[in-house]
């Protein structure tokens, strides 16, 4: 029996910032952002979109196409938690009307959180093949106005349904993990924005990729040439590009071309959405599936990285007929519905979203009909509503 991804849903808020305009406002050469960092746009959440509402919206992209009664595990990876105690997944569970028998919790290890959830969910379904699990990654990447990390912000969520005999990608049990207690990126309890040593973080990311990819190949006897695609956690697309350059080093021209083309396909959405922390690797997967040239049984390698730091490499095989489980037109429409905001509007919305809204004041969302949003707090309890 094979276990893996049967559905994949994506959501990003309805506003974006153009990177050329941001570069001009910051006095930088736009090519630094567009080429040097590899970002064209970044999605922006106002105060009505948070990890919970985005996670609900991502899951609703496929919820009506599957038997939700088989779901008895819901895991949420996020580093934009809405409460120090209660799991964000409980709000999601209510909105999705999942049964009270569902086991649900939140995982934190920086951008690795969704992968941790994926591993738990796959093992769970291997033991309980009649059941299925939802795993969500949902984040607001915030470094602060005028910081060097500003260009690598973003907002969005990816949700996957894990089940036996999946329709999109089977996930192998082999994996290579590597961890180290370091300080390359973190968000202290008293800070709404992340602190980062970007250069150090890049070094560690690349080091962990080399280690886990080599270890995975050693364990499984697979070669670089066996992969149709290698995809990466993309805090900004240049980071994955650097890892891919290491992966294809000394390979034949045909392999280099194949892995470069598939990398480019995997980075299409991240280039426009920006960093979505936990969900970023899975946005790369969706982008590859919808913009690449994959065939049944193709092997896809996935590199997950969470600062602090935790890395893991694993692989999956593409399932015949996988395109029947995707909707690229709808995902493109989701991106295209976003309204561009000026840098001044972005700065205003960014600062407003950092503040805790006043208790008992209802927030109004400008999202389209059907989407969920954060409607403010009532007696310090978070309220979520559907438009
Ligand atoms: N045209 C083309 N490329 C240009 C350029 C121009 N005019 N100006 C600069 N560049 C290139 C640089 O050469 C560099 O490329 P390289 O990385 O291949 O060397 C790149 O643009 C970035 O320039 P740099 O001067 O290093 O930028 P920076 O000091 O502003 O830092 C980051 C960039 C990415 C390190 C910073 O945005 C950051 O810390 N982001 C957060 C990282 C992160 O998310 N880490 C944790 C999660 S894994």
What are its keywords?
alpha/beta, single chain, Peroxisomal Thiolase, Chain A, domain 1, 387 residues, 16 strands, 3-stranded mixed beta sheet, globular, 12 helices, binds coenzyme A, 9-stranded mixed beta sheet
Secondary structure elements and their pairing?
Layout (H helix, E strand, L loop, with lengths): L2 E9 L3 E4 H8 L3 H8 L3 E4 L6 H9 L11 E7 L10 H9 L6 E5 L5 H15 L4 E10 L12 E11 L4 E11 L5 E2 L8 E2 L1 H23 L8 E4 L4 H12 L4 H14 L1 H6 L6 H12 L7 E8 L3 E9 L9 H9 L2 E2 L2 H12 L17 E7 L2 E6 L1
Parallel strand pairs: 2-14, 4-5, 4-6, 11-12
Antiparallel strand pairs: 1-7, 1-8, 2-3, 6-7, 8-13, 9-10, 12-13, 15-16
Helix pairs in contact: 1-2, 3-4, 6-7, 7-8, 8-10
Bound molecules: coenzyme A.
Structure description:
The chain is α/β, with parallel strands linked by helices and 387 residues long. The chain has twelve helices and 16 strands. The strands form four sheets. Strands 5-4-6-7-1-8-13-12-11 form a nine-stranded mixed sheet, sandwiched between helices. The chain has a three-stranded mixed sheet with strand order 3-2-14. Strand 4, helix 4 (88-96) and strand 5 (103-107) form a beta-alpha-beta unit. Helix 8 (253-266) crosses helix 10 (280-291). It is globular and about 60 Å long. The structure holds coenzyme A. Coenzyme A binds next to helix 2 and helix 6. Coenzyme A binds at residues 29, 31-32, 35-37, 148-149, 151-152, 185, 196, 198-199, 201, 205, 235-236, 238, 305, 307.
